[in-house]
């Protein structure tokens, strides 16, 4: 099971059975919030980091 968790929260925001599904959901969450998205490997290390800046109005 793969989980997405927002920094500062104690519980996962959502979970998925596959890593690709979790990455997709995490990307959408990061874009919506305008934050960085860290993609971890199975052993817990950071594999990738993507930054989504907030939209300017």
Provide an overview of this structure:
- This protein is α+β, with helices and mostly antiparallel strands and 57 residues long.
- The chain is 26% helix and 30% strand.
- The protein contains 1 helix and 4 strands, in the order ββαββ.
- Strand 3 and strand 4 form a beta hairpin.
- The chain starts with a strand and ends in a 6-residue tail after the last strand.
Report the sheet with the most strands, covering strand number, pairing sense and barrel closure. 2 strands, antiparallel
Q: Report how far the terminal alpha carbons are from each other.
A: 37 Å
Poorly predicted ranges = none
Biggest sheet, strands in spatial order? Answer: 1-2
Helix content: 25-40%
What series of H and E elements makes up the topology?
A: EEHEE
Number of helices: 1
State which percent range the strand residues make up.
Answer: 25-35%
Provide the gyration radius in Å: 11 Å
The dominant shape is globular
- Strand runs, count: 4
Query: What average pLDDT do the residues reach?
Result: 91
Structural class designation: alpha+beta
SSE order and pairing:
Layout: E1 2-4, E2 14-16, H1 19-33, E3 36-40, E4 46-51
Antiparallel strand pairs: 1-2, 3-4
Tags for this entry?
57 residues; alpha+beta; two-stranded antiparallel ribbon; two-stranded antiparallel sheet; 1 helix; 4 strands; globular
Summarize the structure.
By secondary structure, the chain is α+β, with helices and mostly antiparallel strands.
């Amino acid at each position: 099971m793969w989980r997405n968790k927002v920094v500062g929260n104690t519980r996962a925001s959502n979970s998925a059975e596959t890593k690709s599904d979790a990455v997709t959901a995490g990307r959408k969450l990061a874009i919506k919030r305008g934050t960085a998205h860290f993609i971890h490997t199975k052993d817990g290390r950071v594999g990738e980091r993507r930054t989504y800046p907030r939209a300017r109005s």
